């Protein structure tokens, strides 16, 4: 054959490239009759003299093989369907805590329906993954402007990064009109014919609007697990039971959801939600879902309210509560003393922990605050009873500092803190158990009985408790009857508190027990 006259033959594309066990068509294509193009190396070369041998020779070159290896090592991305929401798995996969990354649910296969994705399509998938990450972690949209530029510099050898263009406007659009919209549609479609419960709560934190947040809990057959999903946010400026019920009914009707599938509504416990005569749950059950099961409101609210109502019975609890709040507030307003506190913590060989903030509206927030104050009690005494009066006389005159000093001087403060820690430890465990994201409804009854029984053991006669043959008998114990109670000095107050008061004079012991 005369030199330079071999023409490109499309049949070559199905053959092996001779070095990388890959078809020629993966990287090579026809440039013209006498030239082939390598899409990986972005170059053309003559094949007129040696034909397919020229292609195989190029494939064996060091530069081509290095680029081929890089491409093989990259995380390839794919599209599972033609819409953005199909790129994102709208149903969370089952896991120990049902907490799965939204961006990680996007498939990383570089093919769709057996066909290789184009570079543009792979770039769109990368943009969808980025948008999902922004939504999931509440990242500012403005970050996308910088991400687009920095990805180009971070991955200069990536053709996907080179084509990545996802500024704040595009990110917003992808999330709101793409991922969110179609994921919502898929969610609504998946719950049309399955039993579900809804979880609702009101909030007024959206620019003066009062909103109703609705979550949905249902068994996801696709993943074989119970999952909780965000359903919607509805504006509900007038938070009466009638209005909230109307908002929920309108939402069901608008989205073609059947009340026949609603098995339970979970909410907090005010009369608006759970009033016997005209509360929200009562209205929904009487008018739309007579079959609905009502297991009561949030048990964590019940436990928290019980604790809030019991703590004020302690001696000087108002002063003690001031101490809990003042200790944190002092270091917030006087950051210059944080370093001094750290120095004292080193003296006592303690962790340099911060004093925690007490917030009475949070579930049992008093427990971790008390535990931290006990841990840091010696450094606090040295700082407020020695260092500040001696070296910072002006600070020592502040009302907050005077209250802290009074509490630290009071011999009853530390044993009272130890008692609170001991008494609330079982409630803290209960709270943590039922704040898990996994299903725990099957544990609720037994754990409530266990919590009640343990509380009774603290101050009731054990023989009375042991006589109970069933849970109904346990609930029937009259704990206000002194005949059923232990003697004061036999109450369970915790070994640390008992050890401290053992050094008290008899008068102070009696005062502490009665307080």
From TrEMBL:
User: InterPro entries per the record?
Assistant: RNaseH-like_sf
Q: Which residues form the signal peptide?
A: none
Provide ranges: composition bias, Polar residues: 92-102
What is the superkingdom listed in this entry's lineage?
Eukaryota
Q: What are the TM regions of this chain, as residue ranges?
A: none
Listed Basic residues bias regions: 56-67
- Residues folding into a coiled coil are none
Disordered: annotated segments:
1-21, 56-102
Name this polypeptide is given: DUF4371 domain-containing protein
